[in-house]
């Protein structure tokens, strides 16, 4: 029976395989996705299989940390495998070694350096990797013979490359940085909040990556990315009802998201896509996670389609939110300006929902990622009792020293008279979850 053991190196797993032998030789399932992921191995998505043939016992290779995951084993002979954690963090320099034979394989996560010495002539060492080899890949290496590592190579070294001999000692190694999180829509309210919370992420604004032009996604170094947070969107709700706006909304919110989904599936990435209360028709006071989608206008329709596309990615988070305010143009900012300018506005009083500060939304997204929350749909909004836009405007006026009675509440129909406006949900509150 196949079994898996953990090791002192986080994520480095030893797999004990079933080998079936008879008078003809032996057979094994070297990698069986369904069985091994059920036992806790990552579903790492191998795309290339490499074999290293070593004719002479004592041949030694390594120690190399590559920017991809590996699943190593032997197809013939025996080898002594040794691994060193060269990733940033507390486990840097941690070692592990074991013998590799047809019954033993090891899953090696990105940034853990791999090496082996063959113990028999004509040993074939095999490894699956989840990224195609490329000439510009950056490896992190450490010397096979570093006394600090104290690896007990079992036999006399017979063959070793000059390149391996000249690898640095552990004390001189620069640790491999983790894969990165990319944020698209860096100049939006959410993008700015994420930048404040995690300035170490990679941020792209529309001038570099524009989802209306998926070709611009080539600017991102996808092989070094682990997570995509899509904070970019076409959000002009009324403008989406025009012919040009309709095309633009579908280009950004659907076609662009589909391009992200393809990349995420191909590279095995996590995709976070931010959605909206506008995917609902607003006929219930608070929308649960599993409510069927029923968008009223073009903007809501594109966000609903974007959710469907995102759901095809195995590792995905659809984050619905509502009424976002933050750094940049928003409803509260507009009401403050009107209050200060002495204006007494008419504001809709029959659309009910909750404000969500961009900082709250950013924190909620980061919490999902940091806690490895279940993939799927999540609602991340502000708390408290739902209020109308007019109620919120009056609160802003009070904060600015104005009389709340200076805000006149009007119906959606009254406000929309004579204007090109999109249909909007009357109830936008999202059930938390």
Which radius of gyration do the C-alpha atoms yield?
A: 28 Å
Give the neighbour order of strands across the main sheet. 1-2-10-7-12-5
The helix count comes to 9
CATH topology of the largest domain: Rossmann fold
> How many domains in all?
2
Beta-strand segment tally: 25
Which class of secondary structure composition applies to the elements? alpha/beta
* Helix content range: 10-25%
Domain RmlD-like substrate binding: 181-431
Protein name: dTDP-4-dehydrorhamnose reductase
Function: Catalyzes the reduction of dTDP-6-deoxy-L-lyxo-4-hexulose to yield dTDP-L-rhamnose.
Site (Participates in a stacking interaction with the thymidine ring of dTDP-4-oxo-6-deoxyglucose): 133
Short description:
By secondary structure, the protein is of the alpha/beta class.
Please give a handful of descriptors for the protein shown:
single chain; 433 residues; alpha/beta; Jelly Rolls; Rossmann fold; 2 domains; six-stranded antiparallel β-sheet; six-stranded parallel β-sheet; 27% strand
Write the layout of secondary structure elements.
Elements: E1 3-6, E2 13-16, E3 19-22, E4 25-28, H1 33-38, E5 48-54, E6 60-65, E7 70-76, E8 79-85, E9 95-100, E10 104-108, E11 112-118, E12 123-129, E13 140-141, H2 162-165, E14 180-184, H3 189-197, E15 202-204, E16 225-230, H4 243-267, E17 270-276, H5 298-310, E18 316-321, E19 324-325, H6 331-340, E20 346-348, E21 352-353, E22 356-357, H7 358-370, E23 376-379, E24 387-388, H8 389-399, E25 408-410, H9 412-416
Parallel strand pairs: 14-15, 14-16, 16-17, 17-18, 18-23, 19-22, 20-25
Antiparallel strand pairs: 1-2, 2-10, 3-4, 5-12, 6-11, 6-13, 7-10, 7-12, 8-9, 8-11, 21-24
